[in-house]
Design goal:
The protein has 357 residues and is α+β, with helices and mostly antiparallel strands. It contains eight helices and 13 strands. It starts with a strand and ends in a 29-residue tail after the last helix.
Length: 357
């Protein structure tokens, strides 16, 4: 076991472990720590705690000291200098005609380095820009290209829910989000309604995905037949998280009848034959790869060969077919009694290829 404290350098960033060096530091205290970028000031979010050594990435850097009033004044001065550095960098980018968007400028606490964060569609050759900035600021310059999600995290904004963005408040890592999550949750597939401020799918789609997957395995789909205490009906609506379904019972004329609501446990899904279905069938999306693999084998001619047939067991129809195929292969005679030359090479089959193509 090893003693650590957790320090954050921004509200939406990760908590990094540091060696307290025997100091007892309370939660919320600002401290100066040594990082790979130099000396930085951060906020303690995890007070002194013992953790297993496997959770720590060595070497564990130490805490220098708690922050003083002079340190806070220097941090405020750095923020003013960052605004000036940002404006100057924007002008230099325009002069060099670079296709990049500057997001923010950040000084290290000891002002030994300036970091510029930018976004771009592709790779950008900014070597001349770095030389220009280094000659103007007389310090080390570092440019880092980030994605649109990181841009939203640094700038911050309000989501469609009216709250501050999750990535800029409490999210430590970006989890993968897919359009399949929106489909399973029954959301509108309109990009403007399921996209965040960054233009990508909202991170909150992933929050309840495990609960949806667990319930979808037990719930029938809309249009399925189910057996209820009132008889067999067709599912008209589903409420996945509530575990409820609305079942429509056709009347005697076959038209739409009454609707009844049932909860999970009061109904059983039926298959096409009217038997109780134990498992939910797989979606078509999951079956497509197997179908594609089967058709590719047939197209390549690697399908299973038929077993040989004994000539004595061969039927008359098969003999007749074989005789007609043999008759078609006989060379035809021309009008003067000469045989036509059938030694020409056949054309390649559809889907094949020949040299030079």
């Amino acid at each position: 076991m090893i003693e650590i404290i957790g320090v954050k350098f921004s509200s939406g960033g990760k908590a990094y472990y540091f060696d307290p060096k025997g100091m007892q530091i309370e939660n919320g205290t600002h401290v100066l720590v040594e990082t790979a970028r130099g000396v930085e000031m951060g906020k303690v979010v995890i007070p002194n705690k013992m953790v297993d050594e496997s959770e720590v990435v060595p070497p564990l850097k130490p805490i220098l000291r708690p922050a003083t009033e002079q340190d806070f004044r220097q941090a405020e001065e750095n923020k003013e200098l960052e605004k000036e550095a940002f404006n100057i960098a924007v002008e230099q980018i325009a002069q060099h005609k670079l296709e990049m968007k500057l997001v923010s400028a950040e000084y290290t606490f000891d002002r030994s380095k300036i970091l510029f964060y930018f976004t771009a569609d592709g790779r950008v050759d900014f070597r001349e820009l770095v030389k220009s900035l280094a000659s103007m600021f007389r310090t080390r310059i570092e440019l880092r290209q980030i994605g649109v999600r990181d841009e939203a995290r640094q700038l911050g904004s309000l989501g469609i829910c009216g709250r501050f963005l999750c990535c800029s408040t409490f999210l430590n890592d970006f989890q993968p989000v897919s359009i399949k999550m929106a489909k399973e949750q029954g959301l509108s597939l309109n990009p403007t309604k399921i996209s965040g401020a960054c233009g990508r799918l909202m991170c909150c789609l992933q929050y309840e995905q495990d609960a949806y997957e667990d319930m979808l395995a037990k719930m029938p789909k809309r249009g399925d037949k189910v057996e209820t205490p009132d008889g067999v009906g067709i599912v008209a609506e589903t409420a996945t998280l509530k575990g409820q379904i609305k079942v429509r019972f056709p009347d005697e004329s076959g038209e739409n009848g009454r609707l009844e609501t049932y909860v999970l446990g009061d109904f059983q899904a039926l298959d096409k034959n009217g038997k109780v279905r134990l498992e939910r069938p797989k979606d078509k999306e999951e079956e497509e790869p197997a179908y594609e693999m089967m058709t590719s084998e047939e197209a390549s001619g690697e399908s299973e060969q038929k077993p040989a047939v004994n000539p004595e067991q061969e039927s008359k129809q098969d003999k007749g077919n074989r005789h007609r195929r043999h008759h078609r292969r006989r060379p035809k005679k021309s009008g003067n009694g000469e045989k036509k030359n059938n030694d020409e090479k056949p054309a390649p089959q559809q889907g094949g290829y020949s040299n030079g193509y």
